[in-house]
Automatic annotation (TrEMBL):
Record bears the keyword RNA-binding: no
A Pfam family it matches: Amidohydro_1
Protein name as annotated: Amidohydrolase
Residues covered by the Amidohydrolase-related domain: 50-400
InterPro entries the record matches: Amidohydro-rel (IPR006680), Metal-dep_hydrolase_composite (IPR011059), Metal_Hydrolase (IPR032466), MTA/SAH_deaminase (IPR050287)
Keyword Hydrolase: yes
Record GO terms (molecular function): hydrolase activity, acting on carbon-nitrogen (but not peptide) bonds
UniProt keyword list: Hydrolase
Length: 429
């Protein structure tokens, strides 16, 4: 495909107008002011359009789409124990497949090209992602609140099976990560054991850390003053590539560990606001050189995958946290939403409009009232644009969504099957 005479957000997150971008198979092969001599096939008229890299959702639980709106106005622990865990206890393969597919449809609609997903029923999640054409880093979340011996944990066998069967699946669109759910749901043997597996297989560790003050302080009480980040570091969890979600209550040495170990931090602005968990100190982390990416968390705690909404929240609440309206520029917010997330997923040739990079692209409309007047287009993308302005989503050079139509997902069937699966679970509760 050739995007012609289109405005682009270039690899430096600067605006360039009247550009040509040629996509061959799954790669961005040409970027220039002049129309290329090579035939790239179908041409896309760039009038009133912006071409930019797709979004990388750095923390998600896609099957929890089934629980959208199910547990509201509760603090995190009550939300988990009284609503989420009982519902999850009734999940089955069919429900997880359709819940994941619904999230893939919503993600693609809102320009998310890849997600870092932490859950279980991994084969069903992999199948949904594969069928949708999306990308995902999927991890079997490991919890062990009862202290079962590590070698006897069924979740570890499931994680190992996932690594063997699915890492690099769907032409590399599926990457298998490992996952410790959290400090408060595991013990040290489990953390150390999975850390060793992660290192052995050269994978990425995905973990919740310091999401709430209660979690943070109880960890310190259990581990002689060690915070979750310090405890995980002592256990060797960050001796491999890692992605730490939330990090709202990090303090002191935590930030040095995150930087020195090269951990990506996935901040989840709207979920953390909605559950009153707090605000991550993104300006401090970014200032220290920590790779900060953006996640939605699940739609049961968000309740939307409208990623532009998340980007705006990320940029604005950071100003409240720092009491400084100059922190987090629009360029920094867009980099966090795209390139930083791709790097956190280990997708090194993704997240930029750059020759030789994967063609994971989205097109944003500018012929809508909320995008005018245009004093600074980058500012408008972050503070004025809406997910409904996304006209096209391309993953690995394939158009998966364009102007209201999906090319890989039967959206009516997906909605029907999701509602049916949800109703069956509710009947059992």
């Amino acid at each position: 495909m050739l995007f012609k005479e289109i405005t682009i957000l270039n690899e430096n997150f600067e605006i360039e107008e009247n550009m040509y971008v040629g996509v061959k198979e799954d790669i961005v092969e040409y970027i220039g002011k002049e129309k290329p001599a090579k035939d790239f096939g179908q041409e896309y008229d760039g009038k009133n359009r912006i071409l930019m890299p797709g979004f990388y959702n750095a923390h998600a639980h896609s099957p929890m789409a089934l629980m959208r709106g199910y547990g509201e106005n509760l603090v995190l622990q009550d939300w988990l124990n009284t609503r989420i865990f009982p519902f999850e206890d009734k999940l089955n393969s069919n429900a997880v497949y359709w819940g994941t597919m619904l999230c893939m449809a919503e993600s693609i609609r809102f320009g998310i090209v890849s997600s870092s997903d932490m859950y279980y029923f991994i084969p069903d999640m992999v199948q949904a992602v594969t069928d949708s054409g999306a990308k995902s880093n999927i991890s079997r979340s490991v919890a062990n609140p009862m202290g079962v011996p590590f070698v006897k944990l069924p979740s570890i066998n499931e994680a190992l099976d996932s690594i063997r069967l699915y890492n690099g699946y769907a032409e590399g669109r599926v990457i298998i990560d490992t996952s410790i759910h959290a400090e408060y749901t595991t013990n040290e043997e489990t953390v150390r054991g999975l850390a060793a597996i992660t290192k052995e297989h050269d994978l990425i560790m995905h973990v919740h850390a310091s999401e709430t003050k209660l979690e943070h302080e109880e960890c310190k009480a259990r581990h002689d003053g060690l915070t979750p980040i310090q405890y995980f570091n002592r256990c060797g969890l960050f001796d491999s590539k890692a992605l730490a979600a939330h990090c709202v209550w990090c303090e002191g040495e935590d930030f040095d560990i995150l930087r020195d170990k090269g951990v990506t931090v996935a901040v989840n602005p709207i979920s953390n606001l909605k559950l009153a968990s707090g605000i991550s100190d993104a300006p401090k982390m970014m200032g220290m050189g920590i790779n900060v990416a953006i996640g939605t968390d699940s739609v049961s705690s968000n309740n939307s995958l409208n990623f532009l909404e998340e980007v705006k929240a990320f940029a604005t609440i950071a100003k409240i946290k720092a009491k400084d309206p100059t922190v987090i520029t629009p360029k920094q917010a867009l980099r966090a939403a795209t390139r930083n997330g791709a790097l956190g997923q280990g997708r090194k040739n993704c997240g930029l409009i750059k020759e030789g990079f994967q063609a994971d692209l989205i097109v944003l409309r500018t012929d809508v009232p909320n995008m005018h007047p245009i004093h600074n287009l980058t500012n408008n993308i972050v503070y004025a644009a809406s997910g409904s302005d996304i006209a096209l989503t391309m993953i690995d050079g394939k158009i998966l969504y364009q102007d209201g139509e999906y090319t890989t997902i039967d959206i009516e069937k997906t909605i029907f099957e999701t509602e049916k699966a949800t109703a069956e679970i509710l009947r059992q509760l």
